[in-house]
Amino acid sequence: MCSSILDGPKLYAAPKPAKRVSENEYTGAMKIPHWQLPPGVSPGTWDYVNHPAIAEDYDDFFAINSLFDHDQRVLAEEFQPPGLVADLGCGTGRALVPLCRQGYRGLAVDLSTHMLRVVMEKAALDGLDITPVKANLVQLHESDPPIADASVDHAMCLFSTLGMIRGHDNRRHALGHIRRVLKPGGRFVLHVHNYWFTLHDPGGWLWVAKNIAQATFLRDTDIGDRYFPYRGLPTMYLHTFRPRELRGLLKSAGFKIRRWIPLEVTRKGPLPHPWWFESLRANGWIVVAE
Fold first, then answer.
1. DSSP label of 212
2. pLDDT tens digit string along 238-282?
3. Beta-bridge mates of residue 133
4. How many CA atoms lie within 13 A of 192 on its CB side?
5. What is the C-alpha separation between 194 and 217, in angstroms, rounded?
6. End-to-end CA separation in angstroms for the chain
7. From CA 68, how far away is CA 80, in angstroms rounded?
8. Which residue, of 6, 113, 159, 279, is most buried by count of CB atoms within 10 Å of its CB?
């Protein structure tokens, strides 16, 4: 259905760096009416992907953060080089670039031109075979350039990227597209946050009760939808998942779950004693599916 972009080596020169813009200088020049937003993209997410400073400072912002270490261990256990790895919502390539240094080819998929620019600067610096793909995961069949069916050996969607997609049906469509481009038997590694972990926050019980009421009476709200300030953006959106909801979404997209890894409070490793109220104690989950 889609023409392949995978023939031959693809080493890219680093694009000219854009003028650095601080978070305080950003004026939201890319703002558009809500009805013109791409499917699944909230106003806060649209500002996020079009915010130059967030991409430029992303690595520095997370430089001392060790949350990614456990993700890398899971990827090393599940993926076998060589092969083509698609990073869905790649950001600045924190997960993809280390894999490509080990001999993988990469597809860096993101809606943010600024994030993709940073990835390709890294690829050019290290001579890595990474292809940038600008795409909304809900509309992955319209990616630029297109990704062929069953063309990717492995895929990952980390750092709660799936939760940045607004709307249950949109999240289901995104998973369906990921399943479409993945080869039979290919592994898919996913990270999401746990809805019930919110109960640990101050006022968490009240928030959950309010959220359930809103989801019951408002058509544009799902159980698990959250809005919060993030790096100068007043209304960043994130959907948090209930276990049954997540399992159902993966099943409806045609995935079979191989590993279900509940994460401990700081998300630096697996939850100890997961049999003890996992749904309430887990910060989130890393799921390996095929």
1. H
2. 999 999 999 999 999 999 999 999 999 988 899 999 999 999 999
3. 109
4. 27
5. 23
6. 21
7. 19
8. 159
Paired tokens of 137: 């995961």
Distance between CA atoms of residues 150 and 1, nearest Å: 10
- All residues at 6 or more sequence positions from 172 whose CB lies less than 8 Å from its CB, including other chains: 249, 252, 253
- Name the amino acid, one letter, at 181: V
Full-model pTM: 0.89
Q: State the pairing for strand pair 105-110/84-88.
A: parallel
Q: For residue 45, count other CB atoms closer than 10 A to its CB.
A: 22
- CA 45 to chain centroid, in Å, comes to 12
Half-sphere exposure for 93 (CA within 13 Å, toward CB): 31
Query: 193: which DSSP letter?
Result: E
Residue 8 makes CB contacts below 8 A (sequence gap 6+) with none
- Read out DSSP for 42-75? -HHHHHHHT-HHHHHTHHHHTTT--HHHHHHHHH
- From the centroid of its chain, how far is CA 30? 21
Residue with tokens 């058509």: 219
Question: Which strand (E) or helix (H) includes residue 233?
Answer: strand 233-239
Tens digits of residue pLDDT in 93-116: 999 999 999 999 999 999 999 999
